[in-house]
Amino acid sequence: MFDILWVKHLHVTCVGLSIGLFVVRGSLELLSWPWRHWRLLRMAPHLVDTVLLSSALWMVWRTGQYPFVDTWLTAKVLALLVYIVLGRFALGKNTPQRQRPLFFAAALLSVAYIVGVALTRSPVWGLG
Ligand code: HEM
């Protein structure tokens, strides 16, 4: 049986990998470097994000904390949707090159917000 601490370590490792892979792809995209030619950079984010979300769902189940019940998890899920949309624009083939830095920076801000929410278990980072 999985231990909660073990799964949390897995979740946090995937968070680091996921953000790292996004930073690499976003930076290369800004430099107009054809990163899609590199199979690892195309495939790895899907694998990492699947493990990230699976571990999240597992912890939701095991800790009995649910989005739309616990406000910090509601904030996390909504901010995750924002991050996904902004990330898609930052990396999207149809995004004008001059708009990319804006989407990239906004996506990084949204994921930083998610990490803050996770660490404080508060939608306002415990500042409210
Ligand atoms: C990019 C997306 C995500 C990031 C950056 C992220 C980040 C984190 C971090 C850093 C922690 C560890 C907090 C600590 O040290 O205690 C954590 C824990 C956790 N995350 Fe995530 N997470 C993400 C997505 C999600 C999603 C989508 C869910 C659920 C729907 C989720 C549910 C949880 C739960 C239940 C915990 C454990 C909380 C506890 O120990 O009580 N995470 N997350």
Account of the 3D structure:
The chain has one domain (4-120). 73% of the residues lie in helices and 0% in strands. It has helices at residues 4-30, 39-63, 71-91, 100-120. 19% of the residues are buried. Protoporphyrin IX containing FE is lined by residues 8, 11-12, 15, 56, 59-60, 63, 65, 67, 73, 76-77, 80, 111, 114-115, 118-119.
Give a brief outline of the structure.
The protein has 128 residues and is mainly α.
Quickly list its features.
single chain; 128 residues; mainly alpha; 4 helices; 73% helix; 0% strand; binds protoporphyrin IX containing FE
SSE topology:
Elements: H1 4-30, H2 39-63, H3 71-91, H4 100-120
Q: What is the N-to-C succession of helices and strands?
A: HHHH
Shape: globular
Counted by DSSP, the helix tally is: 4
Structural class: mainly alpha
Regions with pLDDT < 50 over 5+ consecutive residues?
Answer: none
| Percent range of helical residues | over 70%
Largest sheet: none
Radius of gyration: 16 Å
Beta-strand portion reads under 5%
Q: What is the chains' assembly state?
A: single chain
Compounds present?
Answer: protoporphyrin IX containing FE
Nearest-integer average pLDDT: 97
- Strand element count: 0
Distance between the termini: 38 Å
How many structurally independent domains? 1
